[in-house]
């Protein structure tokens, strides 16, 4: 049984390494997607800012056109003042000119606000385009680095898989089947028994069962978590009583 436990220990270590490799092989593509998503968000932000900038510019042009039309109206109305015959007509035209000038004052303020808004959006687009350019360079670098890492990890993974296959061939089919079933369920199939406690689930092991673990007479499973039990101290060569 000692040989079987020794092989199981090595097999479990390999499985842990394989799982870490699998996690990394999933993590690197996920990181690439994350950076790509960040770029897409920035591109979308730039697109919206440009659309908003275009709208503000069109609104400003319309306001400027209305201001110019009003100024032309004022000029014509002021010329008509010299042609009016009655005081009532003169007073009405003066009121019209005054109202148009008041509206023009509001239009000038609006144009100023629209200019400031356009300048803000232009700065935002410029800053975001600069950031996008930098991130695109970083993204390109990350893609290349991650592709190399993934290739390297795939190579290591295949080597480890080959090592696992060799180790598995040293185990009896029944023990290997139990090991794989528990590993797939709990992640770890082998647990050390220490002071009559399973370190996998921290539950007590009956004394007789613990003695069987120490004597290595047969394969022993934890009554609670069903992990295969062994005594780590024995396999580490420390002074223990078998």
Overall mean confidence score, pLDDT: 92
Task: Specify the overall morphology.
Answer: rod-shaped
Query: Ranges with pLDDT <50 over ≥5 residues?
Result: none
Instruction: Give the strand order of the largest sheet, numbering strands 1, 2, ... along the chain.
Output: 2-1-3
* Strand residue percentage: under 5%
The computed structural class is: mainly alpha
**Straight-line distance between termini:** 13 Å
Overall number of strands: 3
Q: How large is the radius of gyration?
A: 40 Å
Largest sheet: 3 strands, mixed
What fraction, in percent, of the residue positions are helical? over 70%
Helices and strands, in N-to-C order? HHHEEHEH
Count of DSSP H/I helices: 5
Provide an overview of this structure:
The protein is mainly α. It contains five helices and three strands; from the N terminus they run H-H-H-E-E-H-E-H. It has helices at 2-80, 87-168, 173-186, 207-215, 232-235; strands spanning 190-194, 197-198, 228-230. The two termini are 13 Å apart. The mean pLDDT is 92.
């Amino acid at each position: 049984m000692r040989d079987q436990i020794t092989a199981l220990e090595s097999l479990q270590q390999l499985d842990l390494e394989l799982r870490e490799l699998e996690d990394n092989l999933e993590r690197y593509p996920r990181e690439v997607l994350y950076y790509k998503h960040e770029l897409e968000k920035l591109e979308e932000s730039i697109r919206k800012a440009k659309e908003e900038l275009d709208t503000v510019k069109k609104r400003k042009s319309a306001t400027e056109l209305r201001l110019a039309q009003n100024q032309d109206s004022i000029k014509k109305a002021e010329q008509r003042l010299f042609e009016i015959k009655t005081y009532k007509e003169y007073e009405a035209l003066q009121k019209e000119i005054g109202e148009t000038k008041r509206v023009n004052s509001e239009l000038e303020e609006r144009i100023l606000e629209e200019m400031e808004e356009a300048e803000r959006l232009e700065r935002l687009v410029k800053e975001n385009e600069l950031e996008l350019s930098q991130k695109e360079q970083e993204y390109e670098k990350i893609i290349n680095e991650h592709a190399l890492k993934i290739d390297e990890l795939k190579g290591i993974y295949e080597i480890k898989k080959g090592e696992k296959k060799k180790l598995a061939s040293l185990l009896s089919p029944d023990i290997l089947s139990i090991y794989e079933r528990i590993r797939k369920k709990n992640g770890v199939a082998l647990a050390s028994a220490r002071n009559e406690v399973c370190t996998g689930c921290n539950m007590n092991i009956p004394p007789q069962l613990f003695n069987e673990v120490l004597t290595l007479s047969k394969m022993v499973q934890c009554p609670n978590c069903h992990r295969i039990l062994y005594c780590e101290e024995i396999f580490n060569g420390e002074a223990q009583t078998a």
